[in-house]
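Re: [ENG-882] Designed sequences occasionally contain unexpected residues at chain ends

Forwarding the minimal case from QA. Structure tokens:
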């Protein structure tokens, strides 16, 4: 961010165009930071909810930790998330063929968020928050 651009060799029109591009870049970066911050807040809230619900004796044995729907033998069977180890229902999970395991929607979103943040920092060159 501390770099200065030498625009002396550009025409006024070219310099104006460069300025617009830089301003748009700042705007897009700010929107992306806000989006990631909002996503992180939602994930934190979900983690807090799970923490509270998991303390209720045997709650997660009978209900999905994500949507609270009760497990049934055939229609809504339970499965365990490979990452968080909570029991989840079919609608709150996806099967990861590569890992041969189920992962809940929240853990999947969290891992997607980490990838997005890493690639964002790689592009900007600032791996420090």
């Amino acid at each position: 961010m501390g770099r200065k651009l030498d625009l002396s060799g550009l025409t006024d029109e070219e310099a104006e165009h460069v300025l617009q591009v830089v301003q748009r870049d700042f705007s897009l970066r700010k929107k992306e930071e806000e989006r990631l911050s909002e996503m992180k807040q939602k994930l934190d809230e979900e983690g807090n909810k799970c923490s509270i619900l998991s303390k209720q004796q045997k709650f997660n044995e009978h209900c999905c930790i994500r949507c609270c729907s009760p497990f049934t033998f055939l229609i809504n069977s339970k499965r365990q998330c490979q990452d968080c180890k909570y029991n989840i229902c079919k609608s709150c999970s996806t099967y990861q063929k590569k890992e041969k395991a189920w992962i809940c929607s929240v853990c999947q979103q969290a891992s997607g968020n980490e990838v997005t943040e890493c690639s964002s920092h790689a592009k900007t060159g600032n791996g420090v928050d």
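QA comment: On inspection the terminal residues look reasonable. The first strand starts at residue 79 and ends at 80. Proposing we downgrade this to a documentation issue.
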